[in-house]
């Protein structure tokens, strides 16, 4: 595997055991993960997506972190993902939600 340029970490509210719980999961994080994976393939980006345990920003869910840029995004939906991917595809750096 080639080292990816971007690694998207999407909170899916895992908190031990096998069941998801929490805001991100209830707000459709699993569907967003699938959407993001499809968009990465369609756009030909060198990126990977991982589902994570709780990122402890529950009031802002669904939450996503982009590495190695260390950018945090809150309230993610398909429109925001599209804008973030458009920016990355154009060679830019999207603005995160914590002022990074």
Beta strand %: 15-25%
What is the strand arrangement across the widest sheet? Answer: 2-1-3-4
**CATH homologous superfamily title:** Glutaredoxin
Order of helices and strands: EHHEEEH
CATH topology: Glutaredoxin
How much is the radius of gyration in Å?
13 Å
Overall pLDDT: 89
> Could you say how many structural domains there are in total?
1
Architecture per CATH nomenclature, i.e. the level-2 architecture: 3-Layer(aba) Sandwich
**Please, how many helices?**
3
Poorly predicted runs are none
Q: Your description of this structure?
A:
With 100 residues, this protein is of the alpha+beta class. It has a single domain, classed as Glutaredoxin. The chain contains 3 helices and 4 strands, in the order βααβββα. Strands 2-1-3-4 form a 4-stranded mixed beta sheet. Helix 2 runs parallel beside helix 3. It is globular. The mean pLDDT is 89.
Features:
100 residues; alpha+beta; Glutaredoxin; 3 helices; 31% helix; 23% strand
Ordered list of secondary-structure elements with their pairings:
Blueprint: E1 6-14, H1 23-26, H2 29-43, E2 47-53, E3 64-67, E4 71-73, H3 78-89
Parallel strand pairs: 1-2
Antiparallel strand pairs: 1-3, 3-4
Produce a short descriptive summary.
With 100 residues, this protein is α+β, with helices and mostly antiparallel strands. The chain has helices spanning 23-26, 29-43, 78-89, and strands spanning 6-14, 47-53, 64-67, 71-73. It is globular and about 35 Å long.
